[in-house]
Amino acid sequence: MNRQHIDIKIVLDPGCPWCLIGGKRLEQAMAKAREQGYTFRVKWLPFMLAPDTGTEGTPSRGHMVAMMGEEAYAASRERMRPIGKSIGIEWASDKGKGVIASTLRSLCLIDWAWEEGLRTSEEEAQRLQSIVVNRVFKIVFEDGENVSDPHRLRAIAEFVGLDADAAEEHFMSTAAQNGIRASIASCPYMQASGGRGVPVFAFNEKYIVTGGQEVDAFLQVFDQVAAAQS
User: Fold this and answer.
1) Are both 136 and 176 inside the same structural domain?
2) What is the average per-residue pLDDT within 28-40?
3) Minimal CA–CA distance to 94: which of 5, 17, 165?
4) Angle, CA 149 vertex, CA 133 and CA 127 arms, to 5°
5) Which of 143, 164, 190, 219 could make an SS bond with 154 (beta carbons 3.0 to 4.6 A apart)?
6) Per-residue pLDDT, 62
7) Residue 181 is part of which domain span?
8) Is residue 30 domain-resident?
9) What is the pLDDT of residue 1?
């Protein structure tokens, strides 16, 4: 076994900005580590921070202001702006856009992309799922649109070369949605992290890291995991 090969599971809710931030920083860390001979297997797993959120969507600014207050919300946007710049993101909220909606359908699509990719190879599963995850994040955090919109999710399927009709049949199905709920309920990584929030990163099934870690923190984890394999 290559002691520098690392298996990574990432538990996400596509509506959580720290999942986007953590995922982008992980990508940056992996790019650096590959130059040192590391290889990775990455799979995204589902979670819902607000499972009762509806599919119709509500303006995020009004929701957040009602929850935090105008001043606290403005301060949070100031804090997030340079973070977005560091990962190449212009937040939709800075353009007066944003919708809060259920992420269940998008999680079904993310899971389905993995399974469809496996029909070819595990490498293809990783490639397809990674693209789908990033396109879902784009809907939420850059476009500021409803991530439950079937038309937007169909467009993602088409973008990666998958059958849009088959994709919609899957993400709209009760069976697929119940499957996501069951996966969330049984996720061992959420249980190991205390189940308090996402993102959760599991390295080689046993090293658990939570939150939108900095690039250097991920690089340190890679070295620790590799040392434990030697």
Assistant:
1) yes
2) 96
3) 17
4) 20
5) 164
6) 83
7) 103-186
8) yes
9) 42
141 and 179 part of one domain: yes
52 located within any domain: no
CATH number of domain containing 43: 3.40.30.10
Indicate the residue type of 134: N
Has residue 191 been placed in a domain?
no
The string of pLDDT tens digits covering residues 51-105 is 999 999 999 988 788 888 989 988 999 999 999 999 999 999 999 999 999 999 9
Cα separation, 26 vs 84, in Å, equals 14
3-state secondary structure the chain: CCCCEEEEEEEECCCCHHHHHHHHHHHHHHHHHHCCCCEEEEEEEECCCCCCCCCCCEEHHHHHHHHHCHHHHHHHHHHHHHHHHHCCCCCHHHHCCCEECCCHHHHHHHHHHHHHHHCCCHHHHHHHHHHHHHHHHHHHHHHCCCCCCHHHHHHHHHHCCCCHHHHHHHHCCHHHHHHHHHHHHHCHHHHHHCCCCCCEEEECCCEEEECCCCHHHHHHHHHHHHHHHC
Could you give the number of structural domains in the chain?
Answer: 3
